[in-house]
Amino acid sequence: MRTYRVAIVGTGGIAAVHADNLTRTNGRAELVAACDVDQGRLDAFAEKHSIPGMYLSLADLLAEAKPDIVHLCTPPMFHIGQAIECLEAGVHVLSEKPPALSLADFDRLETAQAKGGAQFSCVFQHRFGDAAAAARRLIGGGDFGRPLVARCDTLWYRPDSYWELPWRGTWEAEGGGPTMGHGIHQFDLLLHLLGPWEEITAIASRQARPTSTEDLSAALVRFSNGAVATIINSLLSPRETSDIRIDCEFATVELSHLYGYSTDNWTITAAPGHEDQVGTAWNGEPLDQGSGHAAQFLAMYGALDAGRPLPAGADSARQTLEFAAALYASAFTGKSVHRGEIVTGHPFYGGMDGEGLGAKVLEETAFNLTALKATSV
After folding, report:
1. Which of 154, 116, 158, 5 is CA-nearest to residue 68?
2. Which strands sit side by side in the sheet containing 69-72, from one edge to the other?
3. Which of 50, 62, 128, 319 is the most buried (most CB within 10 A)?
4. Which residues does 98 contact at the CB level (< 8 Å), separation at least 6?
5. 26 contact partners, CB below 8 Å, separation of at least 6
6. Nearest to 317 by CA among 95, 117, 15
7. Does the pLDDT at position 374 exceed 70?
8. Cβ neighbours of residue 93 under 8 Å, at least 6 residues apart?
């Protein structure tokens, strides 16, 4: 039950979420340092969160503050390089999503982890908390039965002004649109609950927003256990919601929320004749701890205490990143993609736009939509 020395790199909006949640870890973490290239923003952040160490470079932070764990809260294009720098210095990493902009970049982590003896983990906070753990145990078991059909929707809204930040909406800086930067939390949880996927058929398009990437993607997915799911990632939806529904043989499991959830956001519905068995199984689970960043932090500390691999570690984070790459590959080639297909030499291994194919397809889509709009006026 040691206290871990924690540093935050990047002091934008998501960094405040990390800092606030670190105060909810029952003294397991001490926030000792922060880093940002903007001195004014760094000073304000450190003052607000009572952080003693302030650094303008990651190298100086690692050398002087000597943290046990670094939280990467920087824009996506910086994640992999900063993670490698920390890991090679022997410091554990908790990185905001996406963990990398390509599978090729992500696979560089293996050497860095081995060199420094530290571990990488990605912020997939929806996996954590009692209800997610209970659902994962019960789906596929005798009480809930085999999963048959599912849907996973991230229906969010972002106005045109959202893309005014120069790094947003580009393949080079974000690696993609809502598939990589928004829906990834929801479909990561779906993968966590249902297990390995086998095949994906998808579309991605730019419907309305001033972005170089997609603003909408949709996929049909077949899982190894036979379940079939639909997945939609949208930034075009005025009534925002984040939903997962999994229909098993004897129970429907539903989660409906927006940017985070509590146990109360889960609904379990039994099939006729199975009410007692399903209700007893769900109510017999511990359902006290909610989901969120603090829940993931505590799980991380517990793993480090016990010498276990970190939850949401490199292997499972890679599976989620591979799923995103496969979605883009299917959308931009018009073909189904199987798990394990995207390897060295594959055009989508080195980047989510498939060596420029994605950008070309989206330009054609945008042109066709503009033409359709013109003819309907």
Report:
1. 5
2. 53-55, 29-35, 4-9, 69-72, 92-95, 120-122
3. 128
4. 76, 79, 174, 175, 176, 180, 181, 184, 321, 324
5. 298
6. 95
7. no
8. 69, 70, 72, 82, 83, 86, 87, 118, 119, 120, 121
- For 130, the 3-state DSSP assignment is helix
- Residue matched to tokens 């998808």: 202
Q: In terms of Cα–Cα distance, which of 152, 153, 154, 156 is closest to 240?
A: 156
3-class DSSP state of 29: strand
The closest alpha carbon to 181, from 190, 168, 191, 199, belongs to: 168
Q: What domains lie within the chain, and their CATH numbers?
A: 4-125+295-309 (3.40.50.720), 127-290+310-377 (3.30.360.10)
Residue 63, Cβ neighbours under 10 Å: how many? 11
Q: What is the pLDDT of residues 158-186, one digit of tens each?
A: 999 999 999 999 999 999 999 999 999 99
Between CA 163 and CA 44 the distance in angstroms is 25
Averaged pLDDT, 348-356: 98
pLDDT in tens, 240-253: 999 999 999 999 99
The 8-class DSSP code of residue 77 comes to G
Six-digit token string for 281 = 């199984």
Per DSSP, helices labelled H in the chain are: 13-22, 39-48, 58-64, 79-88, 103-106, 109-116, 130-138, 171-174, 178-181, 184-194, 275-283, 293-306, 314-333, 357-376
Residue type, 251: A
**66 exposed, middle or buried (CB, 10 Å; 0-12, 13-18, 19+)?**
middle
Lowest mean pLDDT of 28-37, 51-60, 215-224, 361-370, name the range.
361-370
What is the mean pLDDT of the segment spanning 311-315? 98
Provide the mean pLDDT of the chain.
96
- What is the pLDDT averaged over residues 230-248? 98
For residue 312, give both structure tokens. 């949401």
pTM: 0.95
DSSP structure class, residue 160? G
CB 303 within 8 A of CB 110: no
Rg of the Cα atoms in the chain: 21
